[in-house]
């Protein structure tokens, strides 16, 4: 359990009155304990296999503007970016399910853009669909829908917490989906040089 591990190491010590500042730079985990974690189901090798891209850098970007586009216009940006040479695009951390673009609408228009760009270029393309939500039930619902409409990759924000990340990682492994962890919120841990947690640890 990532939650239990972090609670044991950083649970109370950061709040001790005797400590004015404390930073966790690194940690070594005993191999016997490390083996209890499955780790990521996939990595860059599998992403290259899915995209059929080897020996060259993968080129990606985040859709901008991040807020305000309708689902249709968002899908158009995805299409134009992928057709223009990007291998993949991704949602930004605060693209979720706002009144101007609900998540189902975004997923459908993104997949339409991906499929059109793939047809136009003859290359495999993709977009990281953000499934971050208020509850794990909703995260699973969005993930299942992303899979149903043909996506091979989903994304979750760091602010969901360790248990949510570990849970969706297991789901992705069981459903043969790629999972991208967006570091949204990492600066609350890692920005200060004399207090917090190095992002390497996170």
TrEMBL record:
The Ribulose bisphosphate carboxylase large subunit C-terminal domain, residue ranges: 43-202
E.C. code: 4.1.1.39
Needed co-factor(s): Mg(2+)
Coiled-coil blocks: none
Catalytic activity entry: 2 (2R)-3-phosphoglycerate + 2 H(+) = D-ribulose 1,5-bisphosphate + CO2 + H2O; D-ribulose 1,5-bisphosphate + O2 = 2-phosphoglycolate + (2R)-3-phosphoglycerate + 2 H(+)
MF terms (GO), sorted A to Z: magnesium ion binding; monooxygenase activity; ribulose-bisphosphate carboxylase activity
Sorted UniProt keywords: Calvin cycle, Carbon dioxide fixation, Chloroplast, Lyase, Magnesium, Membrane, Metal-binding, Monooxygenase, Oxidoreductase, Photorespiration, Photosynthesis, Plastid, Transmembrane, Transmembrane helix
Oligomer status and interactors: Heterohexadecamer of 8 large chains and 8 small chains.
Gene symbol of the encoding locus: rbcL
Cited PROSITE patterns: RUBISCO_LARGE
Localization in the cell: Plastid, Chloroplast
Entry's transmembrane regions: 149-172
Similarity comment: family membership: Belongs to the RuBisCO large chain family.
Cofactor note text: Binds 1 Mg(2+) ion per subunit.
Top EC category: lyase
Descriptive protein name: Ribulose bisphosphate carboxylase large chain
Statement: the UniProt record of this protein carries the keyword Phosphoprotein: no
Stretches assigned to the Ribulose bisphosphate carboxylase large subunit ferrodoxin-like N-terminal domain: 1-33
Gene Ontology CC terms: chloroplast
GO biological process: reductive pentose-phosphate cycle
Keyword RNA-binding in record: no
Organism, scientific name: Anaulus australis
């Amino acid at each position: 359990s990532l939650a239990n591990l972090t609670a044991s190491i950083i649970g109370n010590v950061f709040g001790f009155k005797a400590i004015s500042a404390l930073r966790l730079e690194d940690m070594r985990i005993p191999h016997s304990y490390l083996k209890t974690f499955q780790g990521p189901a996939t990595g860059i090798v599998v992403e290259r296999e899915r995209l059929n891209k080897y020996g060259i850098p993968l080129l990606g970007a985040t859709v901008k503007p991040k807020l305000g586009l309708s689902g249709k216009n968002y899908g158009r940006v995805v299409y134009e970016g992928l057709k223009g040479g990007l291998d993949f695009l991704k949602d930004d951390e605060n693209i979720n399910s706002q009144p101007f673009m609900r998540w189902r609408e975004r997923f459908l228009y993104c997949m339409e853009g991906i499929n059109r760009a793939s047809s136009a270029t003859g290359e495999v393309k993709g977009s990281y669909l953000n499934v971050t939500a208020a509850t794990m039930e909703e995260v699973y619902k969005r993930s299942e829908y992303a899979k149903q409409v043909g996506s091979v990759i989903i994304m979750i924000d760091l602010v969901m917490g360790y248990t949510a990340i570990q849970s969706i990682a297991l789901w992705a492994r069981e459903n043969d989906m790629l999972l991208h962890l967006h570091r949204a919120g990492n600066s609350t841990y890692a920005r200060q040089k004399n207090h917090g947690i190095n992002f390497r640890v996170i």
